[in-house]
Amino acid sequence: MIKALQQLRVPYGKKVSLDSYPTDDLLSNKPLDKEKIQQATEGLQQQLSDLQEKLYAGGQQSLLIVLQARDGAGKDSTVKRVMGAFNPNGVHVANFKAPTALELEHDFLWRIHQQVPAHGMIAVFNRSHYEDVLVTRVHGLIDDEQAKQNLMHIINFEQLLADAGTRIVKFYLHLSPEEQKLRMEDRLNDPAKHWKFNPDDLKDRALWHEYTAAYEDAFTTSRKHAPWYVIPADRKWLRDYLISQILVHTLEEMNPQFPEAHFEAADYVVADIPDKKG
Predict the structure, then answer these.
(1) pTM above 0.85, yes or no
(2) Pick from 90, 15, 100, 99: which is nearest to 56 by CA?
(3) I want to staple 94 with a disulfide (CB 3.0 to 4.6 A). Which of 38, 115, 173, 205 is the partner?
(4) Apex CA 214: angle with CA 210 and CA 215, to 5°?
(5) What is the pLDDT of residue 94?
(6) Cβ-Cβ contacts under 8 Å for 26 (sequence gap 6 or more)
(7) Which N-terminal stretch is annotated as signal sequence (predicted)?
(8) Taking 80 as the threshold, does the pLDDT of residue 132 lie above it?
(9) Number of H helices, E strands in the chain
(10) What is the pLDDT of residues 171-195, one digit of tens each?
(11) What are phi and psi of 109, to 5 degrees?
(12) 166 vs 278, residue with greater confidence
């Protein structure tokens, strides 16, 4: 994996500062060529398609993709543009919003476990189990001690999934406050985008620093089998390229294989259909 991507990966089990990660570049002084990066993304999309076919056919492993971000950072468009490379038969997207009354009667991971991918499948979590150490903590629904306990449950939960053959890769779409402001104003100014605007998003924006602290604690769950990546999200085309490249790298590490045939192909002949009689 290229050095820039390694720099975007959160060190395993360590506390980091979000300020040390970029929102709009690759930690490099080299100018970015948008057209070339978009072309490279197209090539990566084909690789993703080919690797997913092997994963699905082999049926021995699974991949869980976690997307977390602030409002307006592009979780939905990431699902559309990047995950669109996958065959729908082998992938499902789970959106985790406010828990239902039934879900609240169980532990916070109950609703999550039901959506993890089966062998051969890819699951995309648009928001995830991390909401229970982010939103709940920032809004005072749990205290710091409960958040710490939830983080330990998450570490153990992800280890359980890994032991069962699921590889996990977690993306935080890192948006600057300036870019978020522009995107929120765009939603307000364009009637066709009013449906995307939620007044509660402004309340969360006012809690920017509180969310930053909560995310920095959440990133301590980064592990080799479940790494966190902080993805620059101010430029959508760069975001798509980086996530596509990381997913290709992840699937190549998993090394999915087509299953071996239990017959000799040379022993069989596909006969022509005889002409219909009468």
Answers:
(1) yes
(2) 90
(3) 115
(4) 115
(5) 96
(6) 4, 32, 232, 238, 242
(7) none
(8) yes
(9) 11, 5
(10) 999 999 999 999 999 999 999 999 9
(11) -95, -5
(12) 166
Tokens of 179: 């870019």
Rounded Cα distance between 129 and 110, Å, is 10
List the structure tokens of 208: 């920017």
Domains and CATH numbers, the chain: 3-256 (3.40.50.300)
Give the containing element (helix H, strand E) for 54: helix 34-58
Task: Give 89's contacts (C-beta < 8 A, 6+ positions apart).
Answer: 56
In 3D space, the residue among 253, 243, 250 whose CA is nearest the CA of residue 45 turns out to be 243
Q: Residue 190 contacts by C-beta under 8 Å, 6 or more apart in sequence?
A: none
Count of all residues that appear for the chain in the document? 278
Beta carbons of 132 and 108 less than 8 angstroms apart = yes
Residue 261: the pLDDT is 83
Q: Are 101 and 40 in contact (CB under 8 A)?
A: no
Chain segment 62-96, per-residue pLDDT in tens: 999 999 999 999 999 999 998 889 999 999 999 99
Q: Could you say which DSSP state residue 271 is in?
A: P
The answer to which of 20-29, 94-103, 264-273 has the lowest mean pLDDT is 20-29
The amino acid occupying position 175 is L
pLDDT in tens, 136-150: 999 999 999 999 999
Report residue 273 as tokens: 């259909």
Q: What are phi and psi of 272, to 5 degrees?
A: -70, 150
- CA nearest 169: which of 112, 128, 113, 212? 128
